[in-house]
Amino acid sequence: MFQIAIFRSVTLHKLLLAVLAIFTVGCSQFQKEQGLAGSYEGPPVSVGKGEARAYVRLDEQGKVTTLGILMSEDALDGLPEQVSHGAVEYLLTLPPEAKAGGYDHVSVEWNPQGHIPPGVYDVPHFDFHFYLIDGKARSAITATGEDLARAHRQPEPSHMPVDYVLPEGTEVPNMGAHAIDPGGDEFNGKPFSQTFIYGFYDGRIIFMEPMMTLAFLQSRPSVSTPVKQPQIYSPDFAYPAFYGTYYDADKKRYRITLDGLSMH
Q1: Rounded to whole angstroms, how far apart are CA atoms 51 and 173?
Q2: Distance set, CA 94 to CA 100, 103, 118, 170 (Å)
Q3: Domain count of the chain?
Q4: Which of 120, 128, 232, 244 is buried most, with the most CB atoms less than 10 Å from its CB?
Q5: What range does the domain containing 24 cover?
Q6: Residues 104 and 196 occupy one common structural domain
């Protein structure tokens, strides 16, 4: 009887351990699955009198649905009024979860005098670059000498977003060339407020760029604008269906976003 009692005790103990292990693994898996959805933020960077940071939002399957920049309202104050090299760049680190969408980092560029072409983008504005390449690859873009041809190399027509063109003279070191939409308001007699740029280098897309004026941001907008798409997508990164600018009066901050991101 004593041996039987010991056997039963040991068997029950093993059974309880097995059940506990299954329960623990199940809970861990459940927590892991539940933990995929949500927003993840990178570290803050000082901009003006405020700060900015990059963030990413994932769905329940861990797919990237939104990339964005959180910028405090006071980041629009105390910005340099003149800079000798045209723009001030603030580099933002994306959280590692953004890698699932193919994006590497974000830069915010403040252009107090604007930039080319004159009469279009020569007003104080921000360029928000969402880069698909890393900093080392960016540094290799000189847009001079032999590299100028690579910077301006046209993509396959089916890979160019509908209505967009890649004009000569838009090549910039550490960036690449800028594809624009000639049908945009700023090219058709209306003042520039916001627009969307595709960045190219060596015939492929390397960044997405919402661009907007200081005055537009100061109007505290809440707008979402469709992004024109190519006929054929690259499988290496997620394309945004919309870009948005939203002012949050409660948190006194802006969200500049790439929304509806999808791998094709």
Answers
A1: 26
A2: 11, 8, 33, 26
A3: 2
A4: 128
A5: 1-36
A6: yes
Instruction: Say whether both 125 and 186 belong to one domain.
Output: yes
Beta bridge partners of 258: 67, 243
Is residue 264 in a domain? Answer: no
Q: Which of 193, 235, 243, 239 is nearest to 214 (CA)?
A: 193
Chain segment 128-185, per-residue pLDDT in tens: 999 999 999 999 999 999 999 999 999 999 999 999 999 999 999 999 999 999 999 9
Residue 164 lies in a domain: yes
The H or E element containing residue 108 is strand 105-111
- How is 80-95 classified by DSSP, letter by letter? -S--TTS-EEEEEEPP
Q: Can you spell out the DSSP letters for 116-185?
A: SSTTTS-SSEEEEEEESS-HHHHHT---STHHHHHHHPPPPGGGSPTT-B--TT--BTTTBEEEB-TTSG
Phi, psi for 34 (deg, rounded to 5): -65, -30
54: β partners = 69
String of b and e for 165-187 (b: at least 16 CB within 10 Å)? ebeeebbbeebbbbbbbeebebe
**Of 112, 130, 134, nearest in space to 121 by CA:** 112
Torsion angle defined by CA atoms of residues 231, 224, 196 and 164, in that order, rounded to the nearest 10 degrees: 30
Residue 241 structure tokens: 């269906």
Residue segments in the chain with a per-residue pLDDT below the cut of 50: 1-34
Q: Are residues 136 and 247 in the same domain?
A: yes
Token readout for 139 is 């540094």
pTM score > 0.70 for this model? yes
- 82 plus 30 within the same structural domain: no
Asked if residue 105 belongs to a domain, the reply is yes
Q: What is the DSSP letter of 65?
A: E
